[in-house]
Amino acid sequence: MPIQMKIPREALDPFCRSWKITELAFFGSVLREDFGEQSDIDILVTFASDATPSLFDMVTLEIIGEVARRVSEETKTGHPEIPWR
Fold first, then answer.
1. What is the per-residue pLDDT across 48-65, written as a single tens digit (0 to 9) for each?
2. Is 46 strand, coil or helix?
3. Whole-prediction pTM
């Protein structure tokens, strides 16, 4: 399913490298036709095995997302609706 917004890959690659994100996936309304200006953006991230994101890091990621739009970061083990475990 295509994402309902434009995200330049050249911006995502350095962002993922700097945060040691090895996998980034979108889910939720950003993949549906009902996505709109009031919708949040749900992001599933997997960090590299040598990454040790702290609570402060997660808040920083949230603030970065808030600058552009409301964002929810989730990890594969942290979201009950994601079947990947």
1. 999 988 888 877 777 666
2. strand
3. 0.63
